[in-house]
Amino acid sequence: MKYEVETVDVEGSSMEIFIFKPAGEGPHPAVILAQHIPVGHTGIENDEFTLVTAARIASEGYVVAVPFIFHWWPKDEDMMLKAKETRDDWTVSDLQATRQLLNNRVDVDGARIGIVGHCWGGRVAWLGACHLQGLAACGLFYAGRIKLALGEGFPPAIELANRISCPVIGFFGNEDQNPTPEDVDAYEKALQEAGTEYTFHRYDGAGHAFQNFPTPDRYCEAQSEDAWEKLLDFLSVNLKDVSSG
After folding, report:
1. For residue 79, what pLDDT is reported?
2. What gap in Å lies between CA 85 and CA 180, rounded to an integer?
3. What is the CATH number of the domain that holds 176?
4. pLDDT digits (tens, 9 = 90+) for 159-194
5. Domain hosting residue 185, numbered range
């Protein structure tokens, strides 16, 4: 699959952003794809799930930007250490830099940018929707840890729900333990209290990472494809079927 890699400076650290482009000159709507925790992988370039997911979204007519938000550590550092040491201020800076890169591209319509993420990336997508004002859509797949704060002095991400100004769609497995169905209930309550437009889909017979096809013990094809169709419809309504006026 074809992609470009651009490098941006984020507070003195170099961050790779993988760019997947659709056919045509544009300007196109765009999606920031927040990476999951690629256990066993050192970067986006060998994370098959993220590469295939980005390419699939791009094939539907979107410029897709995938920031390597784990650039704060050496690539060969243990991924669990990176997850433990992650700070929300770093993540927000990464997302702001990615958004700016997209805004600067002539093939992107800056008024039609959304964010999507799986697992760890789902929490990142929630955080991005809280901090990147003007986003047009947010998609969450089995996003855990939203009820937690990452980094000293930062609030739990769930407490920032009132900052989300775009529609949200979420996909969750009823057999998942992170987030549990009770966690998803809490996400719903937070969005309801914030007055945020949202739709959640919950799947029986599916656990965590039910879209992650490289892990056959977790992948659930029927639920995954249903979620894909619903996500693409949601992105089309909120990123394509609107005027950039």
Report:
1. 82
2. 23
3. 3.40.50.1820
4. 999 999 999 999 999 999 999 999 999 999 999 999
5. 4-240
Rg, the chain, Cα only: 17
Cβ(43)–Cβ(87) below 8 Å: no
What total number of domains does the chain contain?
Answer: 1
Is 93 within the bounds of a domain? yes
**Which pTM was predicted?**
0.96
65 is a domain residue: yes
Residue tagged 């800076």 (tokens):
93
pLDDT tens-digit series, residues 46-70: 899 999 999 999 999 999 999 999 9
